[in-house]
Amino acid sequence: MKLVIPFIVSLLLLTACTFTPGKKGPGVFPPVESDYKSIIVISDLHMTDKRALEGTIIPSTPQYNNIPFSSLRKNKEKILQFIDWVIENKSWISEIVINGDFFDEWAVPMQLNVINSYESESNFVKAIANANQDIIQGLKDIFEEGIKITSVPGNHDMGVTKEDYQEIFDGCVDYITTYDKEGKTEDTKGLGTYYPKYFAKKTDSTQSSDGITRSSSSEKTLFDDITGLIAIEHGHRYDFWNCPDLYSNRVTNNEKLCDGNKVEGITTQTILPIGFYVNRMIISQNLKENYSASRSIANIDLEFTNEDYVYTSPTGDKIHSVYKNCWTALKTSNLISSDINYLYNDIDGFNGTYLTADYIPAKNDTRKIYIKAEYDSTWEAIKLLNNVADPYADNLSYYNSATNMVFKSKLDESAKTQYFDLDPEVQVVVFGHTHNPKLQTYNDKNHIYTNTGTWVDDTKTGSTFVVITPYVEDNNNKLLVGNYNFNSKDDIACNFKSLTAVLPLNRELTE
Q1: Terminal-to-terminal C-alpha distance of the chain
Q2: How far apart are CA 463 and CA 486, in angstroms?
């Protein structure tokens, strides 16, 4: 039996938070009266291994020995408080979604092997989990309280597998690596989009054997089947620097892509993008200042034997001028000295030592990696391999994507060009990745985009989370989306005015 429930299209309403934006204090949740529970989305925790948390020996540069380089040290205690707060508020929380960069495989200085004594990437991921066992156990405790937990890949944990999650969490966390609404089609490794399927009711519910609370009422509403209304992904799919790159180093699978060049030290198909190497250069630079998470690519300087040659464009491709302009604009006086101008890598099929110049796209056949990576033409192929819905959207042009490190709003626009413009069913899109929380409307103001921000230590907008709450008002089914900053259980600030969407769709719900 099918029940068809009509809904009237309505303009999006600006609805005040339970408390004024910027005001802090306890007792502000649940954000609206509802018979249904909320979904909470967090991202970018960047958990690291013991080396990063406590410091380690840095070969050849002992002046940097035992300096911690994790971006999550001070805020670990805050995360544990947040976990306690979630459990205390379980009566109105249906699900926690971790929107990428939960683990951080990239937080390793240039001078260290990534995997090192861990012997395998899987063991490295487990070492990160072991170094943050209090957080892992806290999430298991949340699950035991009947709250569903879901995670999707980010760029810093694109090598983490479902098997890793199963071993670490014993089935307490669903790891989403698909990109279709039905959850059937596997995405490119390192990517995944999560479409929540329902909201649990606050009352008249039952807990199934898998620990997830579901409605037991025979009366169905839209909130019992919301598949396709909310899309949650990390957002690095649309970032030239940080999306999986299946193209440039595909020498073992399709030599024609690299003009038949064999690359020493690459043993398998790889997905690591340029951003992996850039991030490790940043970590090395930050060792000099005792790590500060707010430091960025703007603090590094690339040193080359012949920089002009690297940027030469004999065929006139604008790719090289774009690169040169980007790098020049981002350099500062805080130079990486020549004594650390090398990079060890033993992850994702690599096994060698590389100069920083080895991965800068150039028509230079002496580079060891990213052979003939002329990204103004190959960027389109990379987007297709990453299942980008509209690879030709203006905000994803090579120039806009290559400058995303500066103009992050271009990446945020992918919520519009890749979802709202293509699929009228999608009502809310949630990204992470940029570390900049956002909450805004697109198109006809019937679509909400929010960015979950980050939990790393030194950002001005750290410790942010998103709450999505369903409720009924004036016979309309609505979603309230709020973006908040968690400082402590008694100190939660509303970052923006919350936004309310009236759901306009006719849904056929199967009894």
Answers
A1: 6
A2: 5
Distances (CA, A) of 168 to 43, 45, 96, 129, 190: 18, 17, 17, 7, 18
In whole angstroms, how large is the CA radius of gyration of the chain? 23
Q: Which residues of 158-177 are buried (b: 16+ CB within 10 A; e: fewer)?
A: bbbeeebbeebbeebbbbbb
Contact 178, 187 (CB under 8 A): yes
Q: Which residues contact 316 (CB under 8 A, 6 or more apart)?
A: none
Cα→Cα distances 235→63, 99, 346, 386, Å:
37, 9, 26, 12
Query: Which CA distances in Å does 172 have to 134, 147, 161, 410?
Result: 15, 10, 15, 35
509: left (phi over 0), alpha (psi -120 to 50) or beta: beta
How many other C-beta atoms can be found within 10 angstroms of the C-beta atom of residue 407? 13
The closest alpha carbon to 325, from 315, 313, 333, 334, belongs to 313
DSSP 217-280: -S---GGG--TTTEEE--SGGG-TTTS--SSTT-TTT-GGGGTT---TTB-S-----HHHHHHH
**385-417 pLDDT, tens per residue?**
899 999 999 999 887 887 666 566 789 999 999
Q: Give 4's Cβ-side CA count (13 Å radius).
A: 2
pLDDT in tens, 306-342: 333 333 434 334 445 555 554 444 444 333 444 445 6
Instruction: For residue range 255-301, list pLDDT tens digits in order.
Output: 433 333 344 554 456 888 878 887 887 787 777 665 444 333 333 33
Q: What is the pLDDT of residues 14-68, one digit of tens each?
A: 333 444 444 444 457 888 889 999 999 999 999 999 999 999 998 877 888 899 9
Q: Is there a contact between 411 and 434 (Cβ–Cβ < 8 Å)?
A: yes
In the numeric block, the tokens 């998103």 are attached to 466
Q: Which residues, at least 6 apart from 205, have a Cβ–Cβ distance to it below 8 Å? A: 213, 214, 215, 216
Q: What is the DSSP letter of 308?
A: H
**CA 291, CA 199: separation in Å to the nearest integer?**
41
- Reported as type and span, the H/E element at residue 54 is helix 50-54
Cα separation, 49 vs 65, whole angstroms: 16
**What's the CA gap between 348 and 354, in Å, rounded?**
15
CA–CA gap between residue 492 and residue 485 (Å, rounded): 6
Please report which confidence band the pLDDT of residue 203 belongs to, taking 50, 70 and 90 as the band edges. Answer: confident
Both structure tokens of 345 = 């890598």
Ramachandran assignment for 376, one of left (phi > 0), alpha (psi -120 to 50 degrees), beta (any other): alpha
- Kindly give the residue spans of alpha helices, DSSP state H, lying in 271-389: 274-287, 307-310, 319-330, 375-385
pTM of the model: 0.85
